[in-house]
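Good day; I would like, with your permission, to put a structural problem before you. What I wish to show you is a protein chain and, alongside it, a tokenised description of its three-dimensional fold. Please examine both parts with care and let me know of anything in them that strikes you as inconsistent. Thank you for your consideration; the sequence and its tokens are set out here:

***
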Amino acid sequence: MSLWAVLNFLSITMKILKIKTYQMKNVYTENHFFILSKGLNAGKPMEKPCPNCFVMFAKSEEEKNRLYWLCFGLWQGNFFRPFLTGSVIPFIRLDDLKTVIHEALSKINSTEFEKSISVMQDLQKHHENISKQLELIRQTKKSLMHRILK
């Protein structure tokens, strides 16, 4: 991807950031992903919807990928935490979510951002592999104890 394309993406995205509250009755066909709106993980991007989330729309698959990983990085870095409100179940307001994303987009260095996306994707794959291995270890321990105590 060229530097010009990345800069163009950033300038367009800053102007037109389309995020709406998810509604179960709607069918979303364009490029989109979901962002959790409630709980301590508010701001977490997701591929599949849940009842308490927002929908972020993108013009292309490439833009969706960049926005997804930007939100993932913001969530991992706890950038949404100061904006959580609510005494029992914390939540983030749509305007606050947009503000955080706009501020992040304005601070991004395009070449560093591209490298960071690649690194975050690799780290996420490693995280998923390790999580699977841990689950297999838990299942093996359980199976071993069942076999011993029969």
